[in-house]
Amino acid sequence: MRIIFFIMITVNNLSLQYGKRVLFDEVNIKFTHGNCYGVIGANGSGKSTFLKILSGEIESTTGNIEFSPGERMSVLKQNHFEFDDTTVIDTVMMGNKRLYDVMKEKDALYAKPDFTDADGLRVGDLEAEFAEMDGWNAESDAAELLSNLGVKEDQHYKLMKELPSSDKIKVLLAQALFGNPDILILDEPTNDLDVHTIAWLENFLADFKNTVIVVSHDRHFLDMVCTHIVDIDFSKINLFTGNYTFWYETSQLLLKQRADKNKKNEAKKAELLDFIARFSANASKSKQATSRKKALEKLDIEQIKPSSRKYPGLFFKQNRDAGDMILDVHNVNYALADGTPLFKDVTFTVNKGDKIAFVSKEGLAVSNFFKILAGEQKANKGEIKWGVTITKSYVPNDNASYFQNADLNLVDWLRQYSVEKDETFVRGFLGRMLFSGEESLKKCTVLSGGEKVRCMMSKTMLEEANFLILDEPTNHLDLESITALNNGLIDYAGTIVFTSHDHTFTQTIANRIIEITPNGMLDKLMTYDEYLADAKVQEQRAELYGELVK
Hints:
Layout: E1 7-18, E2 21-32, E3 36-41, H1 47-55, E4 62-67, E5 73-75, H2 88-93, H3 97-110, H4 117-132, H5 138-148, H6 165-177, E6 183-187, H7 195-207, E7 211-215, H8 219-225, E8 228-233, E9 236-241, H9 244-259, H10 265-283, H11 289-293, E10 327-335, E11 341-350, E12 355-359, H12 363-374, E13 381-386, E14 392-395, H13 410-415, H14 423-432, H15 449-463, E15 467-471, H16 479-491, E16 495-499, H17 503-509, E17 512-517, E18 520-524, H18 528-533, H19 535-545
Parallel strand pairs: 3-7, 3-8, 5-6, 6-7, 12-16, 12-17, 14-15, 15-16
Antiparallel strand pairs: 1-2, 1-4, 8-9, 10-11, 10-13, 17-18
Helix pairs in contact: 3-4, 9-10, 14-15
């Protein structure tokens, strides 16, 4: 039986231009019912702008967007203060504007002291519409969404301004998901979410029956939910079937084939078909939306083209091999100035070649611990002993202090950290991070967040340390830089301690997980996925955080 997908959104000849800069040029694309589209592109390519055009927040220069009649769109709000004077439960129900408006008008009419016959007729119409929208279950549905996202029941009727920022993010996400919208638009929905909430969201979207369009730098998330990839590249937008890993690996295979001019076309085609078959078989064993749609079985390989995206070259070397003694940490404690404990009794020994992922429910805990390791601040208690052969390179989460000298361009900035002062030598490390030509002469005070992180990676490569301390190194990077950094650290022969919210990054690099809490620590020689799946580990975590195991 042939299934016909009903077209939900059609983009016709869309262009967007700011002055001389063309962001999009004659884009034509269709988004169909039941699919999840992951929008990817380099930093500054216009991913968030494209979502704003789709949602009507900004207008394109030319072209138009057609929506199927009567479809409801829901957009993840980015303003965390917009609903400060609204209760949490009402904020969620406002995600379905028509339902919320009917509910409020109905309640206002019932509250009138001089209720008229006309009011009675109006209430009758509203009640019918309310019932048709399943309004009687709205509040319980909103409460269930909040609970699933980790917002506790005692917070549901508080004002939004009373919530910590971490819970506000979850409420706004619940608002976007509420009421089964026909079109769901999400810009970086996993930002600042804990791993368990992200897992719940992945399962929710994998089972979602309508259309989803999402921007994310989280490769694991894109792999778990996406049926298609929307690639913004050189002012064009191209649509590909499959999740992010399929897009990336296919694109890399095609680039390799294009470089090998001696391969015959039929051999190339056979190799690609074999890859698609193997990918489809692997996907069918997981709960991926890609396999659920069986889209790869219908894929026309003539539609696949290699990406023109450039990937940085991250190659980390050691200036000397480390000895057997790497690092001993004994009974280290640290609390904030107000006395709030971040971690205590942190004790472990680092083995040669360890790649340790540090995790904590409190992000400040890991950042402060790494500052102590890097020698930038002192612990309240405890001892840290380094091996005499160890050379360290530290990449902090907040790198602003490294870029305050307005007189330095990038070549001079990086030269500060180099024994070899030759400009060609220094430019080589900037070039690996795609700073070439005039780009390398930018002033360091005008850099974007992503450019600053790329500079820090140039510095780290230049230092050739045998011990890396990396605090959220993937923050602000585009997918290409994250992928290159990921591969570079997998190949690195030295020792690493790091923390990252990127699931794939952590899973593919770490051979050991250490979780630090105000009540002690866990130290497990296992991968990240094994750590999350181990029931005994989760019980131990719950005890440390003083939580009940669900």
